[in-house]
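FAQ: What does a multi-protein file look like?

Like this. Sequence, then tokens, then the next protein.
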Amino acid sequence: MAASPKTIAFFGATGGCGLSALRRSVAAGHVCIALCRTPSKLEALFPDKPSNLVVREGNAHDAKAVAGCLTSPADQGRLVDAVSFSIGGVVNMGSLSMDDPDVCKKGVAALLDALADLRASWGARGRPLLAVVSTTGISEHGRDVPLLLTPFYRYALHAPHEDKKVAEKRLFASQERFVIVRPSLLTDGEKADKKIRVHVEGPSGIETKEVGYFISRQDVGRWMFDNVLDKADSAVAYEGKAVGLTW
């Protein structure tokens, strides 16, 4: 049975996991609202200009701009059904620093603030399911990456990991519905015939353990769509948990 049409907001949709999830959501007929600093960049990726794709200009760190994407175009008093959040920064491997070391924590703060303001100031209804891309290697419950990768994660990726830790903590402390998606090292190229293994952690610890090296951005987006975004109007098995994805 086909899923009922939903309204989904996208932050970080011009590439990687977010773009993969957006393509599938548009193809499935869901109303998709994407916030972009440069709308023409995303519009160029959809030359057929689908009527169910709304592209808005703005910064995902601006709570007001974020709020403008979180209500249904058909009913401004109703919040979207789901949110795909996949913004991130660029790591300089030479200096082991980031162009913006607070990119994810600021983005999640803007998202949570925007939802709270829409409810408090405008009476917006609904509880969207937030699919938030994070990373493996930051678990508080045990090693979720291969032992050989531990030094690389600890030193080369320290800056982005600290940022994502704060973002995750804010989600766990919120009253929102969410699924944290933690991919292993990201590559390009979808492999639809390759099994995606799922590592599951709840607040009390590891529920299902899977450890791996790589997964593609395209496959992460596909998993997000199939298991979270497309099912946002019903109970989702991974809700309130962190889910590691690897091949």
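And here is the next protein:
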Amino acid sequence: MLGAVVRPHHLLSLLLPGPRIPRLPALCAQPRPRAMAVSSSSWELPLVAVCQVTSTPDKQQNFKACAELVREAARLGACLAFLPEAFDFIARDPAETLRLSEPLGGNLLGEYAQLARECGLWLSLGGFHERGQDWEQTQKIYNCHVLLNSEGSVVTTYRKTHLCDVQVPGQGPMHESNSTMPGPSLTTPVSTPAGKVGLAICYDMRFPELSLALAQAGAEILTYPSAFGTVTGPAHWEVLLRARAIETQCYVVAAAQCGCHHEKRASYGHSMVVDPWGTVVARCSEGPGLCLARIDLSYLHQLRQHLPVFQHRRPDLYGNLGHPLS
């Protein structure tokens, strides 16, 4: 299995073990060595890019860093680029978070819409600090995942339903609800050039019911843009992502924050793409950059045919966990 870790104007290939069933391999966006040659049809599979950044309270500097990676993704042929949770900024405290937040119709989303048009690709903006329509009443925001098409139009939004209020020893306490309201519902998966994408955000990955609901509603790609901590990251990040891929038989795309954001917070990094067999087909390391993977939906549907787990579910025993979205 071949994935790629990319920084602007630099590619590094990673050779990863393949699954134990026949499939077309994932590809990186560079010529393959002769020993890794594949049929030309593999190159026609849609290519996605997963961007890893270190957001700070400086919104314009963050945009500059994200835009550089998105332009690199477009240059390499990606049809869809994924940005992590809090791609817009990571503030030092709830008061700064609220002060820096914007409505969806604000200047920052306008810049990303222009970027999508300029690059001609779709953008998954993994967690925008949104002043919603109830801002004046609540003085709280939403953690909003925004999907833009290649014309810069908002295709759908998802507001994070599970807020991260945790205290993990060795990792700074998180009280997301101090500044953020939980979203009211899940969002129906959306057709994109890479496949049907089901939206989630970070802490949502700990709730398999959400991923099952999205898969039963037609998702082929689940995306978990994140800002995982440096204690929970090494312990849980890859395990949870691979589990969500295996149980839903979906591709899982996880763009992550990395490094030190300011004196109070750091993130784990290790953005990755996992295929429906549970194999990590592309990943980043600890620093800013991007990784690439091709999405093979024929393989996904073949796997679901060989292992028809959704046909074997027993809601009569354990209820409608992960029932289809209305």
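Q: Is there any per-entry metadata?
A: Some entries carry free-text notes. For the entry above: Residues 47-311 form a domain with the Nitrilase/N-carbamoyl-D-aminoacid amidohydrolase fold (CATH 3.60.110.10).
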